[in-house]
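Reviewer 2 asked us to include a model.

Predict the structure of this chain.
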Amino acid sequence: MKNNTLKEKFDRLEKELEGESMHPMVDAVLKNVVIPQLKSVPDAEAHKVKAVVRRIVKTLQDVFEV
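Predicted model (structure tokens):
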């Protein structure tokens, strides 16, 4: 199985999110800020970004107690 680039993975995520709605504000932030920014990360820097994203997700889980 071929390793997909970050851009390819986020392109796929964008397609999966089409037509779905979590909350208008969350949708807007994901589609207009988060995904475009993450798509622009060079694959060579992916490991650094993954570590930051893990930390953000962990923090959000703690805050929302999920």
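Helices lie at 6-17, 24-39, 46-64. The mean pLDDT is 88. We have added this to the supplementary material.
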